[in-house]
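Handoff note, outgoing to incoming analyst
You'll be picking up this chain. Sequence as last confirmed:
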Amino acid sequence: MRHDCGCDGLRDCILQSARPRASDALPSISVRWGWPARFTLSRSGQVTSSRLGGSSGVAAFDAQAMAMIRQASPFPPFPDEIKTGSMSFTIPVEFTVR
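Most recent structure output, in case you need it:
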């Protein structure tokens, strides 16, 4: 099912919404970090809870990962075909800093 934003599904909408904001204000070093972020959305697309599945060991990266989810909210509302009141997602968060 195609959404108003042009993606092919709710999962793609969510990933597209979150992705572009992840690399702002990071230190200039050449390292790669990755860990999962978990969040729950209400039917309307509001984030009702979020947490990191681990820590990068760098407070600025952890804070940026959480900010990425907050800044992407609200996500697209659930299509009528999805009857559940909320959905949880786990997405990879990866920073490559050069």
